[in-house]
Each structure stands twice: as C-alpha cells, then as structure tokens.
Amino acid sequence: xxxxxxxVIDQARxxxxxxxxxxxxxxxxxxxxxxxxxxxxxxxxxxxxxLGVPYSDPVMDGLxxxxxxxxxxxxxxxxxxxxxxxxxxxxxxxxxxxxxTYWNPVVQYGVERFAQALRESGGAGLITPDLIPDxxxxxxxxSDKFELDRVFLAAPSSSAARLExxxxxxxxxxxxxxxxxxxxxxxxxDEAARLLVGRLKAVGAExxxxxxxxxxxxxxxxxxxxADGAIVGSHLVTALSDDGVAGVSRVTAELASGVSHSAN
Length: 264
Hints:
The chain is of the alpha/beta class. 47% of the residues lie in helices and 14% in strands. The chain has a 9-stranded parallel β-sheet. Strand 6 (153-154), helix 8 and strand 7 (174-177) form a beta-alpha-beta unit. Helix 2 (31-43) crosses helix 4 (79-89), helix 2 packs parallel to helix 11 (234-256) and helix 6 (111-120) packs parallel to helix 7 (137-145). It is globular.
C-alpha cells in the first residue's frame, strides 16, 4: 500500500528538509473553528496534521492541551464530530491528517468500525500514545484492512526489543518522544531525543519524527538535522486559544520556516 504520510516525508527528504507536523484537538473551541484551524494549519505550512481526540483522562497531555480538550468535551464533543471535522477538511487540505487518540475511545466505538469510519472520512491513520505494538493485534489487522497508517511511540526508556517492535509495526513514521513525561513547550529539547532517533534508525526505522516540547522555529530546525520531522502541539493550541485561527496561521508559518531550508 502507498502511505500518504510516508510519501510526504519522502518528498520533503528529497527536497532537503524535514516535515512540520502540527497538532490541534478536535472540536476546540468549537466544531467550525476547529475545521477552520485545521485548514489554516495546512495552508500555513504544516506538512502533516495531527488531530487529537478529546479524552477525559489524557495522561500524556500537558495543561495547555488538557484545558483545550476538556473545553471541547464540555462543549459536547462526541466521536461523531471527529469524523465530521475530517470530512470537512480532508477534501480541502493537501496535508494528510492523522488522528491522535488514546485507545479506550476506539475500543468503545469498535476497532474495525472506527477504522472504517476513519478511512471513509479521509483520515490517514492513527497515532496511539497508550497502545503498544505488543497489544495492538486488533488495530494492526483493522489498519491493514482499511489501509491506514499506524504510528507507535518510542521513548528514551524503551528497550531495544520494544524499539524494534515499534519500528516493525509502525506505518507512516515512528513517533520519538523527546523527553520523559507529559507534553508541553520546553525551552530546551532533551539530548535524549537525538540519541533515541539514532537508536531507532539503528534498528531499521526509515522515518522518525520527534514530538513533545517543541515550540520554536529554531527547535524545529535543530530536530530536522537528525530526524525526519518535528511535531508541535501545545504552542499551536496556545496560539488558537489566544488569537484564534489567525494565531494558528501565524505560528504555523513561523514554525515552518524552521524546516524550509534544513538538510536532513
């Protein structure tokens, strides 16, 4: 199968740069603004979009994202709204859209039913922060059936065996968690990110993107020197909270300047 996410990363690499992956929570601050913000992300320079499913127990998310997802849930967000947002955006934006979700909502919805709805609404696949490949047989089967990407996480604490399994089972890219702990912008990226990417490449990873704590164009530029892409979340959510869709456009363009002339 041809993965759109892999094709985007490979084209960027051929152009001598990394990719910018931008995260926003679905339904925040409301459905229409969420749709407009996703479109703004793509139009302002995000190569790939990560659309988060609001969840009541977001163990990996920092306060900025927690507040936004809680607001989305308080506003009445349901999984049906996720597919509504995808249908409204995937035919408009050039960037493939990956859904980031904790595993429980998928199980509650039905794994194969969720995969089919994701495919039919134009989604490219899933990033599953709390699902490890060893426990993902049902999702692996469903994602194969519906030709969806599956992005597993790798952390600095991961054993060699777990890294190898994440590489073997991921499709799209492997998500390297730059630091231990929850998401959120940080002044300095942990050197562990560079070491982790090296370990992943050493066991066969073809595409690795780094997330957690990236918030500036310089950090994006730094990451693009050793990884295939940088993932930015909290900084974009703050921009949306403070300045609406215009803020998302402005910050995305600033971040995208970090990959535009970087050599991988």
